[in-house]
Structures are given as C-alpha cells and as structure tokens.
Amino acid sequence: MILIFMQMPMKRKYAAKVVYRRAASRGSNLFYSIVLAVRKKSRKGEFWLKQIKYSRQREAIKIFLAGCIDHPTADMIYMAIREEYPNISLGTVYRNLSFLVDRGEILKLSLEGKADRFDGNINPHYHFCCKSCGAVSDLEMPEQMEINRLAERYFDGKIEGHQLIFYGQCSDCLKEKMQIEKNYKLGIDK
Q: In this predicted structure, what is the pLDDT of residue 48?
C-alpha cells in the first residue's frame, strides 16, 4: 500500500492532509480511497487528529453548488439533493454545509433578516440582493482591493479580504413596479 500526503489550504482552525491510499486489487486494477485527516486545535490549545471519510452526499452538495448561480438556501439544497439521495436529512445537509464553509470550499452569505445563502464560487466576487423578491446574484465587476488598504488604515491587524453585498431592486422587480404604476395611471386593475 502506498500513502501519498498532500497539504490542503484551509481556514485557520483546521490544518489538513489528504491521504490517497492506493491498494492493488486482483489483477492490475487499482482503486483509490481518499481519507481526510483533520488536525484541529482544542480549547486547551492541543491539536488532535480526526479522520473524516469521503461522503457522497457532501460531494453531491458541492457539485450542486458548483452548478448553481442563484445562491440557494439550505432548504433549497436539501430539496435538490433529496432527489438523488431520498434518505438524506436536513440536518445532514446543514452539517455538510457548515463543514464545507469551515474548510473554505463554499461561501456562506448571511443576509439581513433572510435565510443564509450558499455559493459554490469561492473566487473573490461581489453579490447583489434584491430587497423586493430576495433574489441573490453575482455582480460581475473587478475586485476592489483598495477597500482592504483603506480598512487597514483604521485597523491594527492585517486585512486579508472582504465580502461585499449590494442591496436594491433587480431589473425584474423594477419592470413589474413600473408596469403596476403604468396600470394604476391608466386605471387598469391587475
């Protein structure tokens, strides 16, 4: 059996290594199993290793989020994943989402008075949230690094990044509002 260790970038509280185990089966066929060993700091400051197994459900969540552009809630993810895995529970979805956020594999968007949204795109980008319909979308614009430099002037530590969410009304809601106003002026009921 051959073990290959590989460092993975993670958030501060986790340091991990992926262990690829290669073992020969009958004949020349080889199979691989992936084991994630997480080194986590306890409250006492000691480190301990926890082995985290590969999960088909966790992978399904990641794949689903990678293909989404609408930034779904946990409930929306649960309903979509449930089609493939009918026995999955909402708690499992929440635990896997929390785990993926902690590892930095997905983004969690906390919005004012609304359910958290999740984004499979971890590259730096901005978001827009419609106050009328609640839709969340990516805002395609270059990252504004000068915000980090400006914030460092007023902060003693080191700024590593920022997350920015713009609020307003989306084009669909504006069109609907204009149509309602137009109908009102003409005296037409909707």
A: 59
C-alpha distances in Å from residue 12, one per residue of 16, 82, 109, 125: 11, 32, 19, 22
pLDDT at site 171: 93
Torsion of Cα atoms, 102 then 103 then 109 then 114, to 10°: -40
**Can you give the pTM of this predicted structure?**
0.68
* Segment holding 158, helix H or strand E: none
Q: Give the DSSP H or E segment for 136.
A: strand 136-139
108, burial (CB in 10 Å: exposed 0-12, middle 13-18, buried 19+)? middle
Tokens of residue 44, six digits: 């006492």
Contact 62, 106 (CB under 8 A): yes
Residue with tokens 């990641």: 62
For residue 30, give the amino acid letter. Answer: L
- pLDDT tens digits, 12-28: 444 444 444 433 333 33
Could you report the per-residue pLDDT of 113-137, keeping only the tens digit for each? 889 999 999 988 999 999 999 899 9
State yes or no: pLDDT of 60 exceeds 90: yes
Q: Which residue has the tokens 């060993």?
A: 37
**Pairing, β 126-130 against β 165-168:** parallel
